[in-house]
Amino acid sequence: xxxxxxxxxxxxxxxxxxxxxxxxxxxxxxxxxxxxxxxxxxxxxxxxxxxxxxxxxxxxxxxxxxxxxxxxxxxxxxxxxxxxxxxxxxxxxxxxxxxxxxxxxxxxxxxxxxxxxxxxxxxxxxxxxxxxxxxxxxxxxxxxxxxxxxxxxxxxxxxxxxxxxxxxxxxxxxxxxxxxxxxxxxxxxxxxxxxxxxxxxxxxxxxxxxxxxxxxxxxxxxxxxxxxxxxxxxxxxxxxxxxxxxxxxxxxxxxxxxxxxxxxxxxxxxxxxxxxxxxxxxxxxxxxxxxxxxxxxxxxxxxxxxxxxxxxxxxxxxxxxxxxxxxxxxxxxxxxxxxxxxxxxxxxxxxxxxxxxxxxxxxxxxxxxxxxxxxxxxxxxxxxxxxxxxxxxxxxxxxxxxxxxxxxxxxxxxxxxxxxxxxxxxxxxxxxxxxxxxxxxxxxxxxxxxxxxxxxxxxxxxxxxxxxxxxxxxxxxxxxxxxxxxxxxxxxxxxxxxxxxxxxxxxxxxxxxxxxxxxxxxxxxxxxxxxxxxxxxxxxxxxxxxxxxxxxxxxxxxxxxxxxxxxxxxxxxxxxxxxxxxxxxxxxxxxxxxxxxxxxxxxxxxxxxxxxxxxxxxxxxxxxxxxxxxxxxxxxxxxxxx
Length: 642
Known about the structure:
Structural class: mainly alpha
Helix content: 55-70%
Radius of gyration: 29 Å
Shape: elongated
Number of strands: 10
Number of helices: 28
Distance between the termini: 94 Å
């Protein structure tokens, strides 16, 4: 029988090193490491194994205390997080503005109390979600998942030891392991964002590690050749997954099984044969050193990369190397002077909580509240750029005209707040602008085109709700009753009399699904059958990053983007446009890209004015400027209704 009592294993430190190396190489965008994010899953397996062994030892000696356990967790994890997050706050303050700055403050608070995975899941599934690459504390989601595991596992194992003595424990464990893996597969396919960020879909990964620890004495004792084979197989599974999968693959689910099962195999092989070739490679001094500082490396590596993304600084080989060296140095210093200083202090749970959690919580909450209520830009944005900032931050059409965007889905606003152009005759507008947030984002552009043309335009838009006639909407949008209700109400309104109808949508997003080619063509057929004059609002170029919207604030010399990439991105839309023209050659198409793009480049700034508010939506001032410039260069495509 194998002694399952925990002892120091250098190969596990090496596994930690491998995990953090994969994560860093992936986040530093080193070519070839397309799936390095699986390093996090390797950490989960290791954590399950190590924590279970520690708990087993304490239970067997009768020395376990929940208070001591959680006091050690706080002293182990929180001091370094406070250092890294505070330095990050100071580092980004001269650069981050508006929502980006406030989102950091909110994530700082949620990270400290171990719920940042819940926060990011909520934040990143919203319609106007922030860009992940510039979220400085995004990587703490995995630490939150781990902390949530620490909340449930000690009590679960304690109850099993207390009341399950003499009972066969492996069957309940096996059933639970299979069930949690099946849940992960299901969630990864049905709710990918929830699967990625939340504990339930990752629980089986921890359980693979806990299983090796719990049943170490019951698992077959391995001979050297078998241990060598299992260890090599396990390492191959981890490394191959990191090289073969990408962020576009379904994850976790089945794709998470290979690196996590591989990690469990390496740990299992090392229980019996600590001198395998794989174990000796993992136990090399450099791997043990990196594994020892892996927590510091993990915390420090991402914030500077996120700042570079926000500032639109390309990750070249030179600055990758400089970052790696800098992160390595600061991680060792943090490990030496922060991690080790606090983790061994004999503080009680109460003292640890008050000093390391509650007091910083109050300070961070005060910072967050200050930023939200009265963010003083004077010390962060030079005076000559504050007007540019206001254009970007304070001119979201969805906020300026929220009664035309966020109101009741059925009883939509038909009052003056949502009327543009001429006064309607007999209270009935002769035209409408319908669509989603990309439709309302172009209202400034449309206003310039309709001026003096006899248009009395009613705007009715809603987030993520492109117009589809009732029959189509009931099928396509069945999962969201409010979308169906909105489009039923619009269909009824549009059936009353012929009008001029401006149709806007985030065409690229919907047309990624082949079926939407047919849905949108059917929508145009329906509008024409009702006698409407149809004007399709083509979209503006999509930016590579929302940070490009603020390029003038970042002192960039050139804010243009590659026109060829813009055109490639429009391939599905152009197919839709060609099909629509064949069926309805009289449909009018307005194309703001004519103002912004030539064969080589597309501008994000026009006449010194920033045009966008994020990577795909115009700000209202920018939309107006595009409309003015369009009329200077081209004939007005709209018919005169006077």
